Amino acid sequence: AAVPRDPAPPARRRRTTSPLAEARLSVAGRPSVATKRMSDVSELTESDVSEQSEWDALLAQPAEETAVRVAIRSRPQIDGESATSIRGNHVSVGDTNFGPFDATLDDHSTQKATYDGVARNVVEQALRGFHGCVMAYGATGSGKTHAMAGERGDAGIVSRAIAQVFAVSGAESDETHTRVECTYVEIYREQVRDLLVGDAGASENALPPPPQQQRGRALQAGNRTPPRAKTPPRAKTPPPQKQPRIREDERRGVFVDGCTRTRCRSAEECIDAFRMGSRRRAVRGTAKNDRSSRSHAVFTLELTRTTTRGAATVTQASRLHLVDLAGSERVKESKTTGDGVKEAGNINQSLMVLGNVVTALEDKASKRRKGDINGAARVPVPYRDAK
Length: 387
Description:
Blueprint (H helix, E strand, L loop, with lengths): L13 E3 L2 H4 L12 E3 L4 H4 L2 E3 L4 H5 L11 E3 L10 E4 L2 E4 L2 E3 L4 E3 L5 H8 L1 H8 L4 E5 L7 H6 E2 L2 E2 L1 H13 L6 E13 L2 E4 L16 H10 L24 E5 L3 E5 L4 E3 L2 H12 L4 E2 L7 E2 L2 E14 L2 E13 L6 H4 L4 H31 L3 H6 L9
Parallel strand pairs: 1-7, 4-8, 9-20
Antiparallel strand pairs: 2-3, 5-6, 6-7, 10-11, 12-13, 12-16, 12-19, 14-15, 17-18, 19-20
């Protein structure tokens, strides 16, 4: 059924619900599986991982009836901002009430509490073979990148998800093998860019010093007749990188074609790839944030699990998308100029399209629940209005 609305509030207050919050579906919670500490990645994650979350144990658990869940995390208040209060599954900012949400986290919530309340279940479902996505959405300077990427010693959702995936794959039987691959792209001003390739290491292709410099060094060394300098070999120019493109087919669904796919054999390798790509993200200093993300970043784990029992082989594949969206902003508050204004326009436009997509999906789902299958099929979803 559609999410019920609260009774009308007093006239001086108004109620605002985001498109994401309206798309939520109620779900009965279930306890997480038993946990223990991972010694090999505790420095990065401080995360408890499953002791009994082998593949068979996960597959034995019932699937949830969840399509979209929405949680909100409040960061510490900055001078000049309206006071924020959390009551149950509602959040009030000044005189405006937001909600209801599936989970609420106050400004004292730790990174571990955020992961447990928001992402752990999504990762478990991805390990069972379902595609999953965790998306950080909010205004610029609200702490999205901190929640997703974290810092050294205080890991975010991405590092903890990687640790959980490898904890499960490391506990598999001899009959089962899991292959983990990752991709990392950003959408900057409606262009898809691969974050796992770039200018790092370009100095390795530097040309040797020209002949006149070699002759000068030879004369300084006292050689009366310096040897004839050989023509230096030309540096090999790598072929131009093919720009990744978003494609769709019946077998793979929607995917990014032309991006680097990295095989990860350990949690450390996977986290290193994520950190390397994060250093290449487009950022800009603004009045709201000295390192404001100017692109939407999508880190994807592709999980392929192969089980062999006798002559039968079963392959199961799933994708887990971990998304750090650029924050919506008002130019008069962020005080950006030049290209920063164009970046803000692209960011705000794409976030508006995202809201329209989620609203349309909820409209389709609502019609299906009412039995109006034909009406649901006629609802357009504006996927192609933005990347």
